[in-house]
Structure formats: structure tokens, C-alpha cells
Amino acid sequence: MQRKGDPNKRFMTERPRILLVEDVADDAELALLELRRAGLHADHRVVDKEKSFVDALREFAPDLILSDFSMPGFDGMAALALAREVCPDTPFIFVSGTIGEESAVRALRSGATDYVMKTNLARLPAAVERALREGRERAARRKAEEELETLRERLRSIVSTLPDVVWSVAVPSREILYVSPASSTVFGRTQNEVYENRTLWGEPIHPEDRPRIMALWQGAVTGETFEAEYRIVKPGGEVRWIQGRGRFNGDAAGNVVRIDGISRDITERRERERKLTQLSRVHAVLSGINSAIVRAHGRDELFRDACRIAVGAGQFRMAWAGVVDCEAMRVRPVAWDGEVRGFLENAPLVVTETGGPSLVGQAVRGKRPVISNDIQNDPQRIMKAECLERGINSLAVLPLIVGGEAAGVLSLYAGELGFFDSEEMTLLVDLAGNISFALEHIESEEKVRYLAYYDSLTGLANRTLFLERLGQHLSATGSGRQQLALVIVNIERFKTINDTFGLQAGDALLKQVAGRLLELSGDPSRVARVGADHFAVVVPHTEHEDRLIRGLEQSRRRVNEDPYVVDGTEFRITTRAGVALFPSDGEDADTLFRNAEAALKKSSSGDRYLFYTKQMTERIAEKLSLENKLRQALEKDEFVLYYQPKVDVDTRRMVSAEALIRWRSPELGLVPPLHFIPLLEETGLILQVGSWALRRASLDHRDWAEHGLKAPRIAVNVSPIQLRQPDFVDILKQAISEGVAPPGIDLEITESLAMEDIQANIGKLTSVRGLGVNIAIDDFGTGYSSLGYLAKLPVQSLKIDRSFIIAMVDDPDTMTLVSTIVSLAHSLRLKVVAEGVDSEDQAEALRRLRCDEMQGYLFSKPLPRDELTALLEPDG
Question: Looking at residue 353, what is its pLDDT?
Fold first, then answer.
């Protein structure tokens, strides 16, 4: 029985407990006296009977047992046996005057720690000290082993409950070192089956995927991780999708010796993704054809658009539409798209039952869709060779019902097996219904229902239908959860066009305007003609004000700026619009419509659009005005570069500088970047301004060099939008080509940008380094960096974000963080630059932390080019 707590720590602070098994009190006292002479003071208890010995073992809990070998009432070997049973880790030393060599050997083999002759008690202190030390070590080892076993058991329990397979495989033998119980569910092989055939790890991988996965493993590098999706074949032949993730582990020489990983069955996820992709394609067809329904002026035009959209947007291999020829009793194709050449000439298009097996005939006779989801294995299908040649595996024939009879069909052919299941067919049946409905109205535009809800000129919904649809949009949006905008557009001076060019020209112009609005909306249910020269448009998902403004402005330019041509005459129009927002400007269709009209009436000629809420209009006007000024600033060369020096921590001499863009506006004065950079990025103008900044910095650097000045390297900030451009490296190369060689330009990119699309960035930044341009990670510490990827990035320095520099003097935790960043950077052989240094306390702290460079107002504010030039002069 052992006392709790750390035994090493206890023996340093407590007197050891010694249990003496001795029937002669003087002998016990002599032993204790010898220990005290050696400076070893202990608590002790003396026993000479078996019961008292056992009681002392449990109650006294000795650290050491000293026992006589031979006693009249209690044998020393019996005491040893009891001690090994009750407290196996407690050292046991025989102290005897009669023990012989043979007995001593037997005692040691039975577990005694040592023996000391009573005639040589001088040896006792050393034996006791050694025994106590070894006892402490033994107890510590036992405790560590018990904790390790507990941890192992906990891990085994956790792993056994995971649905994913945890595994470890040796390299290059591919011998399975460990596999978790989930292998039975995921791979169809129990742990025992796997361990009995430890080299079968690659066998379950699908033959088509195996070379790719084996190549991935063979190209492994120690410390790297991998992730791959592949198929396996279970023992019963079932094919499942697996996502494997792992890490390559190596030996001291850097050779990969083991792969540890986890495998997850993602078959259901892959199936959901496949399903979503298919549904997305069908939705695209539905949306596109619904738009075409509004534009089409005839049946054949509608059919041509439907086939084109099915192949283009829906990615069907082939589509054709035909009408039922009642006299010939067959379907006559009138429009098609895709790989149709030579197909329809041989297709079975007879609609009678005696005409042979024909899906077209079945669909027409039954007035319901007919499908085949596995053409090659469908015994009733013909033209299998033609379908196989075109990669077609599924087809659907949709009857178009007009007046209760099948007037035509729309046939769709897909490359995927089983494409036309219930969800796809539900959408396609709706589509066929819409086309059928359109056919009815194309044939009879005078029908009362159509005229009651649609504008006969443009084909758009009229005010009555639009208000119904608007109410449906509001119900679908839900009060307070999402927002939408209602825009009522007025064509200015339209009456003048009618009076001057005639009603026919005016009508043609209205149709073209309606067409553009439909194209912009993409959904005919969101567009209507609500007056002679008024249109209404619903704009969904307007939670983001900036996105709404951008969309309205782009739509206005699309409607207004491109000319309209009517009978050879070119027209240019201007529009103004009233805008009401749901739910803030109205929670029902009538109120929202009324307030959008009110906003339009309040607008004046020249207004682009006016919001029902005045503050919204003012905000938008302010933003648009600023955007216009920025475009003019670029044209008029109003942007300038200021330069802020970076100094050496020890010498405080300038070693480089950062280029900071400023806008010198004639109206606003010198505008700081926070007031206009976000808008530059939002409008895309940052690409032109960023290219200008690179070129301007290169030219300034060249000018300093040509004048014999010691030109510092100039760091230019790069925005995320710039770095994402495919031609970024070419733009940079062109900019620095106008400077000196080797270039004196460096780049600064933010930490979050560096970690975005890391593999692509490594490639781009490596190309940048190849141009002789250095790269720094800006605002380091504010994002989330993977140290593994950070080490791979071709960067030369880190810039610690100014927020840490400001806080570190007063906050020990921040000081520790800054110290860690400096140490980390130096371990990766990177320079460290601290930005935002404004006080001597900060500078002194950075010097102690061995930071390399500093930048901040303590040394210099950002300077115009001329002032920096003065600093570069020999006497500057």
C-alpha cells in the first residue's frame, strides 16, 4: 500500500519512514543509531510479530523495511513475502548476524533489495540511501506506466467509437501497422482480416484511382500532409467514395517511414453533390426557358430557344422539340441542339402502338413523361449504338399538352446514368407545363386570361399580375429575415419619341427595354410593365447596401448607355427610378408599390434613382459622387505617393521606405487612404491605381539612383484583388522594367492574403522573387498563419502589426507575443520590421527583443517625394 503524491517530492521534504522487523530492541536501536550518525533521521516503528508487521505495512506505510533474518517467532523470509505482496515497491533490506551466503542469494532472488551484516553496520547508511533512491525511482516508473496505460485505454476507447477509420501504414512496404475497428464498416474488412493480411492496404482502392493514390504516396515528403478522395471496392463488389487524410512521418534521416491517417466514407456527400449539380442544371434550364417564353414571338422560336438552353445551360448532350402531325401520326422535329447530326433521321417517331417501341409514341399516347435511365441495359430501347457513340445514357420525353392533347414533345438526353429521377422530373414537368402554357398563348394572344395578367406588347406581367407576384416574393422573403427592393423605372421623354417617330417605333423601343430588363433580372416573375412608359423590377437579397447600389448602377448603365435600334434609327434613352425597400418602406405589396411610385414622383429629371427614404438616397449620392471623383482623379493624375522611412534598430539610419498612396483632391485636399481605398477595391479601380503605384515607385527609385543618391528599397502594398489577377506577375514585371536593374521595389502583402489559396500564391510569389523583388508579410499577427506554409512562402521579412507595438509596453502578454514573433521570424531566417513605433519606450523594447527595423512617427511621418529626396542628400 503506497502513500499518494509524488514520492520524489515527498522525500525531499519529509523524514523517511523505516519499519524495523527485530525481536532484539538493542539491535534495532543500534541500526537507528548508525543511520543517525550518517545524518539520516527517520520516523520508525519496530515489530517482531507477523500481525503487527502486516498492520504496520498498511497503517505506517513505510518507505523502507529493515528486517532480521532469523527470529524465534517470525521468520525474515516470511516478512519479505508479505512485504512483496502488500507493498511491492518498498525496498527491503535484511540486517542479520547469522545470514549465510546461500541464504542471502535466496533472499535477493525473492525480492530483497540488499543485506547488511550486523557486524558491519557501517555499511547500513549507504545501503539505506541507495534503497530509498531506487524505491523512489521504481515508484515513479510504476506511476508513469499506470498513467500511460490509462491514456492508451482512453485513446483506444475514443478511437473505437469513431465512425472513421484511423490507420497507420509502413513505407515503403505498405504494411498495416494499425487500423481502427471502423475498418469493418468503411472498408468491409475487420481488424483481424486486416492484420492477417497486412499488405492489402492498397488492394481495396478502385483500379482507376489506385495509380493516382500510389503516386501521391510515392512522392511523399516527411512532415507533409495529404488529402485525397478516391473510390474503393468492398468485398461484396460495392463501390464507395472515401476521403483520406494523412501525414507522412520520417526517420532522423528524413526518409518517409510511416503514414498516419484517417479515412472517411463520403459516398453520401458525393451523391448529394452530384444531385445538387444535376438539380442546378435543371434549374438553369427552367430559368432560361421561362425567360425565353416571355421573349418568344412564335412556336418555332420558343422551341429553338428551349433546345439551345437545354444544351447550353443544362449541359444535356442533346435536345430536340417537335410537333405532333396528326395526319402522318408521327412527331415532326422542328428544333434541336447538341450532337443531333444523323440521329433524328433514324429515330422512331411514330406515335401509334403498331409503330414499334418508341418513347416518343408512349409519351404522346399516355400524355405523360417517359424516361429511360439506363439506355444500354433497357431491353425496350433501340438506337443503343447511336446513344453510346454520343455518350448518352439517359433520356426523357416530355409531352407538351395544349387543350388536353399532346401537341408536341421536348426530348432531353443526358450523359449520366439515372439522371432523370423524381426531383429532376418534378422540375421538368413544370417546365413542360410552362412551355405548353406559352404555346397556348402564342397561338391565341387574345385570350382573356392572358390579357388580364400580361402586357400584350412586351409579354411582361402587367400591374395586376405583378402585384400578386410581388406579394408572393414578400411572403417567400419573410418579414425581417431578408430584404428586397422594388424599383419602378420611368423612360424620360418617351411621349416625345411617340410623337416624333410614331407609336410603332415607340412600341418597338418598349419591347427592347423590356428585353434588357428581363436579361438583367433573369427571372420573368420579377419584371413587369406597369404603365405606358413605366416598368417595375424586384431586386432580391438586398441586405448589403453596397451590392444594391452597384447592381442598380450597372443595370442603369446597361439600360441607358447602349443604343437601341428601331427600323435603322438609333435611339438613346435616359431613365430615372423610384426605389422602396422591404420591409422598412412597406411590409405588403400595395404599400411597397405605392411608396416606390412616390419616390419616382419626387425624383426630378437627371436623377438616376431616388429612394423612398431620404437618408438612403443621400448615402448613395455621396458614394457615387466619391466614385466619380476617384475615376477623375485617376484620369487627372491626382494620386501621389508618400514615403515613410524604415530605420535600423541599432543605428536608426534609414534602410528602406514604404510607399503610401494619397489622393490630392482639388476639392477635398489631401485625402488619407482609409477614406478611398475600400471604394477603389469595391469598384475594381484598385487594379489601375495599384499598377500606377508600382510604376510610380519604380520611377522615383530610378530618379534617385540617376541623381547619385543612395536610393532606399521601396515597399509597395499589394491588395488582394491585384494578387488574384492571372497577369499580376506580368504587370509587376512591366512596372519594375521602368526602374533600375536590379529592381529596388519590394512588395508587402497582408498575412490573411498570403494564406489565401496558398498553393497558387506560392507559385506567384516565387515568380515575383525571380524578378529580384523582395516580399514582406504585412500586419503579421492579425491573421491566422500555418507555420508549415509560412516556411514555404518565398518571403524575406515580417512586419509586426502596429496594434501589438502600441500595446506591448503596458501589456506583458503582448510583449511576450512580440518576442515570440521575432524569435519565430529569426528561426525562419526572416527579418522583422515593427510598424507604428511612436515612442522611445517602444523603440528600446524592440531593440532588446532584437527586432531588425522600425517604422513610425518616432522617426518620420510619411513624406512627400521631395522631402524624402532631401533626406537622401549627403547632408540631409
Answer: 67
**What pLDDT is attached to residue 173?**
77
Q: What is the pLDDT of residue 598?
A: 82
Cα–Cα distance for residue pair 84/89, rounded to 1 Å? 8
Contact 862/672 with Cβ under 8 angstroms?
Answer: no
User: Which region among 149-153, 436-440, 476-480 has the lowest average model confidence (pLDDT)?
Assistant: 476-480
Give the pLDDT mean for 222-239. Answer: 84
Q: What is the pLDDT at residue 160?
A: 64
- Amino acid at site 871: L
Q: Are 572 and 554 in contact (CB under 8 A)?
A: no
Residues 6 or more apart from 786 whose CB is under 8 A from it?
755, 758
For the stretch 525-551, pLDDT in tens is 999 999 889 999 998 887 676 677 778
| Of 573, 581, 570, 655, nearest in space to 613 by CA | 581
| Cell, residue 713 | 528599397
- The DSSP symbol for 454 reads B
Cell numbers at 687, concatenated: 487594379
Q: Which three cell numbers mark 652?
A: 536608426
> Each residue of 577-598: pLDDT tens digit?
888 888 888 889 898 898 888 8
Distance between CA atoms of residues 80 and 67, nearest Å: 8
pLDDT digits (tens, 9 = 90+) for 443-470: 765 455 567 788 889 989 999 899 999 8
* CA-to-CA dists, residue 678 to 248, 584, 626, 635, 720, angstroms: 43, 27, 12, 19, 12
pLDDT at res. 7:
43
**In 202-233, which positions are buried (b, 16+ CB within 10 angstroms) versus exposed (e)?**
eebbbeebbeebeeebeebeeeeebebebbbb
Nearest to 138 by CA among 93, 104, 87, 94: 87
> What are the helix (H) ranges across 671-757?
677-683, 686-706, 720-724, 728-736, 751-755
Residue 198 is predicted with a pLDDT of: 66
DSSP-derived 3-state class of residue 360: helix
Instruction: Kindly tell me the sign of the dihedral angle through the C-alpha atoms of 615, 618, 623, 624.
Output: positive
Starting from the edge strand earliest in sequence, which strands make up the sheet with 370-372, in order? 330-338, 318-325, 405-414, 394-402, 370-372
Q: Are 91 and 111 in contact (CB under 8 A)?
A: no
SS3 859: coil
pLDDT at position 276, please? 78
Query: Which pLDDT value is given to residue 604?
Result: 67
Q: Is the pTM of this model over 0.70?
A: no
The letter for the amino acid at 9 is K
Q: For residue 576, what are the β-bridge partners? A: 490
Where does residue 772 fall: left (phi above 0), alpha (psi -120 to 50 degrees), or beta otherwise?
left
Burial class (CB in 10 A: 0-12, 13-18, 19+), 615: exposed
Does residue 699 have a pLDDT over 90? yes
The one-character DSSP state at 310 is H
Among 350, 364, 373, 359, smallest CA distance to 425 is for 373
CB neighbours (10 Å) of residue 461?
24
Question: Could you give the angle at the alpha carbon of 620 between the alpha carbons of 615 and 621, nearest 5°?
Answer: 95
Instruction: Determine what percent of the chain falls in helix, strand and coil, rounding each to the nearest 5.
Output: 45, 25, 30
pLDDT at position 197, please? 78
Q: How far apart are alpha carbons 676 and 629 in whole angstroms? A: 10
CA distance 802 to 779: 7
Say if CB 86 and CB 75 are below 8 A apart: no
Model pLDDT for residues 464-506, shown as the tens digit of each residue? 899 999 888 888 876 556 788 899 999 888 888 888 888 898 8
**CA nearest to 295, candidates 531, 516, 446:** 516
Which residue shows C-alpha cell 385570350? 447
User: Strand 575-582 vs strand 609-611: parallel, antiparallel, or unpaired?
Assistant: parallel
**Buried/exposed code over 174-184 (b: 16+ C-beta within 10 A; e: otherwise):** bebeebbebbb
Distance of CA 1 to the CA centre of its chain: 56
Phi, psi angle pair for 517, to nearest 5°: -65, -40
